Amino acid sequence: MHKNEEILGAIIKQGVLPLYFHPDAATSVDIMKCLYAAGIRVIEYTNRGKNALENLKKLRQACKKDCKEMILGFGTVTDSSTAEKALDAGAEFLISPGFVKEVLAISRKHQVLWIPGCMTPTELIRADQAGISLVKLFPGNILGPEFVRSVRDLFPNLQFIPTGGVEPDQENLAAWFGSGVSAVGMGSNLLTKSAIEKREFAELTTLTVALLKRIDAIRNS
Fold first, then answer.
1. Alpha-carbon distance 119 to 30, whole Å?
2. DSSP state of 113
3. Residue 22 phi, psi dihedral angles, 5° rounding
4. What's the CATH number where 54 sits?
5. Which of 34, 60, 85, 105 pairs with 210 at a CA distance of 20 to 30 A?
6. Does residue 188 sit within a domain?
7. 180: left (phi > 0), else alpha (psi -120 to 50), else beta?
8. Distance of CA 132 to CAs 40, 69, 121, Å?
9. Could you report the per-residue pLDDT of 55-105, keeping only the tens digit for each?
10. CA nearest neighbour of 73 among 56, 57, 55, 93
11. Measured between alpha carbons, how far is 180 from 146 in angstroms, rounded to an integer?
12. At what angle do helices 25-37 and 201-220 cross, to 10 degrees?
């Protein structure tokens, strides 16, 4: 198991947190492998279907064999029961779409990293007071980079990762990183439905490599 500081550092270093769910366990593993081949070492598998927890176990098994450096997070966690089950299934960190006190309690109990979703200054205050390091700005397409510029100085202890509607193009990424975010979360805009349906996993690897290079170039410009 990785320490919370390691996980946090890995997300920020990577610059993007790919997130996805697929009902088929084998396809879920194939997607993880294509991301790993691109250099991804942290992913969020989301709780978007009844097979999510069982699939997470299969991902954990695949990590031991083929993706030994991969750090697995479990997203869309909205209650304590799901949080406990996710940790039992092999999740190393938890992500929620909002600020859920129950999930905060579980994260403290097990001393695991929890990334809550925040959309308002009130929620950011709550996260700051709880000692949270990284918050998910959700939905990112509603908030936009200007929101980050407006609040970042008020919360010097918080780091931000917008999720939802983040585009993989140069202009959108430059706007987000220029506003002061530490990383971006990206789902279907990176792992497209069409590529997955056609099993074009090599294409997903290529797109992810290009994305990582783009982020690196933006950060170093």
1. 33
2. E
3. -140, 135
4. 3.20.20.70
5. 60
6. yes
7. left
8. 24, 25, 14
9. 999 999 999 999 999 999 999 999 999 999 999 999 999 999 999 999 999
10. 93
11. 10
12. 40
Q: Is there a contact between 15 and 184 (Cβ–Cβ < 8 Å)?
A: yes
| 215 domain residue, yes or no | no
Query: Largest Cα–Cα distance of the chain, in whole Å?
Result: 46
Q: How far apart are CA 15 and CA 86, in angstroms?
A: 24
pLDDT digits (tens, 9 = 90+) for 15-63: 999 999 999 999 999 999 999 999 999 999 999 999 999 999 999 999 9
* Measured CA distances, 80 to 12, 52, 111, 188, 221 (Å): 26, 16, 14, 27, 42
Counting every residue written for the chain, the total comes to: 221
Q: Ramachandran region of residue 199, left (φ > 0), alpha (ψ -120 to 50) or beta? A: left
**Is position 184 within any domain?**
yes
Number of domains forming the structure of the chain: 1
Nearest Cα neighbor of 201 from 44, 40, 27 is 27
pTM summary value: 0.97
Is residue 214, in this structure, part of any structural domain at all?
no
